[in-house]
Amino acid sequence: METVSQLLESISDVGRDTVRGGYSRPVYSTAELDLRGWFVEQAGRRGLEVETDRNGIIWAWWGAPEKGALVTGSHLDSVPGGGAFDGPLGVASALAAVDVLRQRGVQPNRSLAITVFPEEEGSRFGVACLGSRLLTGAIDPDKARNLRDADGNTFADVSRGNALDPEHFGRDEEALARIGDFVELHVEQGRGLGEEGPAIAVGSSILGHGRWKLTVSGQGNHAGTTLMQDRADPMVAAAQIILAVQKTAAAQPDARATVGRLEPIPGGTNVIASRVQLWLDVRHPEDAVTAALVEAIHGKAQKIAAFEGCSVTLTEESYSGTVHFDAALQRQLENALPGAPVLATGAGHDAGVLAGYVPSGMIFVRNPTGISHSPEEHVEDDDADAGAGALADVLEGLL
Ligand code: HGY
Ligand code: MN
Ligand code: MN
Ligand code: MN
């Protein structure tokens, strides 16, 4: 029986990013497809029946596919330069938990499925939790089909290239009915679990979060022939906007706002950009406050752009309101894990999308660095195994 660490070790060379460090495993990239292949092979070794649904979600069944099953899973795609655990820890722990349950001689009263959701990070097509949003109908299939990656490929075309028919994307009543309860194990991505004390926590809520794109348009020109006073440089406006984002969020308790991605166009060293795209990630427990923050940022951006002789547009890419997990299921998780702290998370998850449709819950495993979406994300071997044991305890109580 392999430990979680051994399972993760077996994929530790897949999708390494030698430029950024860490891992870059965009959905349907060679790396993520290799991880999908690894999962299918691991599931096959355990005699789990594997199928991929019309939205690209992989289901590995212990027992016949049926309504009201117990489902656990996570994702295999990553952010650019991400850590080894965000996503794969939940999938590897689910495989290890099946081994533990079988070793305990557990005879399930209902089928158990392990799921792998595509595009949880939204790193390639821009919308996070794209697979679970399609499954639940939380995103319009047409919008999903037309999402484009940085190379201009549509999600429809890339999905078609992976044996899916994008015309079948959308809410899947039959698949949703199969989820009686959903539990996701995930690496803790903040400092919620310190070095001392319990290594496992139970999730209670997910902070509301959204993504917006700001496009600042100026006058593209030559870096050498354009006098400073004659410029309308969108990069100069963008720099001030990023500062305004930080100041606006820092002044609002519990708010978080980030510009993690910025693209000058055309992006030449000796070229004054004609426009700059910035992607904004704003989060707060209250949806109305998030909306007010975005409005304030947009207003400041318009003033800054005008001062620099530029203009700015803002478009919403995706939004998920604050989610509280199913109270009864959360209590069952707490009963199965006596002494485990209860943690609200600032990170989005497929469990958060599903929480709006089926009983959904999460458990978190200690990350001693408290850093995530970075190569520094870490889980100690013992804690990883404790996580699989905790997941087995939780699942046993629900089977
Ligand atoms: O962005 C998030 O919170 C998650 O990691 N997708
Ligand atoms: Mn993540
Ligand atoms: Mn994740
Ligand atoms: Mn020239």
Automatic annotation (TrEMBL):
Pfam families associated with the record: M20_dimer, Peptidase_M20
Annotated SUPFAM superfamilies: Bacterial exopeptidase dimerisation domain, Zn-dependent exopeptidases
Cofactor or coenzyme needed: Zn(2+)
GO MF term list: hydrolase activity, acting on carbon-nitrogen (but not peptide) bonds, in linear amidines; metal ion binding
Residue ranges annotated for the Peptidase M20 dimerisation domain, each copy included: 208-304
Family membership noted in the UniProt record: Belongs to the peptidase M20 family.
Name assigned to this protein: N-carbamoyl-L-amino-acid hydrolase
Organism expressing this protein natively: Crystallibacter crystallopoietes
